[in-house]
Design goal:
Layout (H helix, E strand, L loop, with lengths): L2 H20 L5 H11 L1 H26 L8 H17 L7 H49 L7 H27 L2 H8 L6 H10 L1 H16 L2 H28 L6 H21 L9 H12 L4 H25 L12
């Protein structure tokens, strides 16, 4: 990627982070008090994400290897993974930033088609694992409710039914996408959007063969490389479960829950409900407001105080800002020119 293009991505992400900082409606006194309260657990939370990003990078590497050789070193994949997520956090509509950046950075190593298909497959697997993570939380919540450990009323039943229908629909669409590919259908869908019809039709006509090849590479991961498919899915799903440790560490500071395994289960449910609510508001940069509202509702449903919900949301926001800044800085290091491989 040319440095000029890379600088555009960097500037866009930096502006988004600055906007987020100025719209972060928390006083410095409260922010500092919560950071001090987190203490050494804050370092554990920041360190946890090193493990999670390594797992994400490992998933992406498995997907790349599913379609051929992988000449890109693992440290570079890890670097692009962190930077890609940083851009996704900072830009509206999420995938509008990180995925194009990763495709352009990966293209010199494996060519445009494989770079595009691998990035799309990673994004698909990341979301696919989220859907199963949310389904798991429905089952876990229902089991705890049966034992009287969590409340179950008409409102909660409706929420769980909505989650089940939403996740079921999402899983069905992704399974269809894995079998038949989805890039051509996505471009055709864009062709029906007012204002994008002419662009979408022209793009499909000019790149029809390339788009079909990308779709074939997507479908081959599930049909011909099942070991790669299930290995990448397992890594992503386990990563979502391990992410619950972030909230678990914070609940321990308040002695929330009953301790041990049950507190971790509460953390699992809080993360699941919050992430679903926040992803429904994907058009907000850094999911402003959506994440905080999700934490407030999820924590209250677990019978915890609003102070805990506020604390968790603030520390998670600090972690996001920290790793977003790291991701943006990584855009400026370790860059070199490589020869495109077909």
């Amino acid at each position: 990627m040319k440095n000029k293009t890379r600088n555009i991505f960097f500037a866009f992400g930096l502006i988004a982070v600055i906007v987020m900082l100025f719209t972060f409606k928390v006083s410095f006194a409260q922010l500092w008090a919560d950071i001090c309260h987190a203490g050494y657990w804050l370092w554990a939370i920041l360190g946890l994400w090193i493990v999670l990003y390594v797992m994400n990078a490992w998933t992406w590497r498995i997907i790349i290897q599913g379609s051929g050789d992988c000449p890109i070193p693992f440290w570079k994949i890890l670097k692009l993974t962190i930077t890609g997520f940083a851009l996704n956090y900072a830009t509206p509509a999420g995938l509008m930033g990180g995925e194009p950046y990763k495709i352009m950075e990966l293209k010199p190593y494996i060519g445009t088609q494989r770079a595009t298909s691998s990035v799309l497959l990673f994004a698909m697997m990341h979301i696919f694992a989220h859907f199963w993570f949310w389904v798991s939380s429905i089952v876990v919540y229902g089991a705890l409710a049966l034992y009287g450990l969590l409340p179950m009323n008409v409102g909660m039943v409706l929420v769980l039914l909505f989650m089940l229908c939403f996740c079921g629909g999402g899983i069905y669409l992704f399974i269809r996408g894995y079998h038949n590919g989805m890039v051509v259908k996505l471009i055709r869908f864009i062709s029906h959007i007012p204002g994008l019809k002419q662009w979408g039709r022209a793009f499909e006509e000019n790149h029809r063969e390339d788009l079909q090849k990308i779709d074939r590479q997507i479908s081959e991961l599930q049909s011909q490389n099942q070991r790669s498919f299930y290995a990448s899915f397992a890594l992503e799903y386990v990563g979502r479960v391990l992410q619950s440790l972030e909230i678990y560490f914070m609940l321990l500071l308040f002695d929330a829950g009953t301790g041990g395994g049950l507190t971790f289960v509460y953390a699992f449910l809080i993360l699941s409900f919050t992430s679903l609510f926040a992803n429904l508001l994907f058009f907000l940069p850094l999911q402003l407001g959506g994440r905080e509202g999700g934490f407030a509702m999820s924590v209250a449903q677990m019978g915890m105080t609003a102070d805990i919900g506020m604390f968790v949301s603030i520390i998670c926001r600090v972690r996001e800002l920290f790793w977003t800044a790291i991701g943006l800085l990584l855009m400026k290091v370790g860059n070199s020119s490589e020869t495109i491989k077909n």
